[in-house]
Design brief:
two-stranded antiparallel sheet; 2 strands; 4 helices; elongated; single chain; mainly alpha
Length: 81
């Protein structure tokens, strides 16, 4: 079983600049194939269905990749204007 990684206050502070600008529900669906509540539970490190709460190492890497992909998509849109 993988160890869960909780998004602590420092990480939440790092996301603060984009927290309200991104549809986390869409990120959850598009990049993880999960429900909107899933990502909010992960970000808040809420224990669901016996898990430790938070992101596993694999999910953390997937989350990082999702943010990189999203940033690249935004950059591509900006470049065609």
């Amino acid at each position: 079983m993988e160890t869960a990684i909780r998004i602590n206050q420092a990480t939440r502070d790092q996301l603060k600049d984009i927290m309200l600008d991104i549809s986390w529900a869409k990120v959850s669906q598009r990049y993880f194939g999960k429900s909107p509540s899933w990502i909010y539970h992960k970000m808040d490190a809420i224990n669901v269905n016996g898990s430790d709460g938070g992101f596993s190492e694999t999910e953390k890497e997937q989350f990082k990749s999702a943010l990189f992909d999203l940033s690249e998509r935004i950059r591509n849109c900006a470049n065609v204007l």
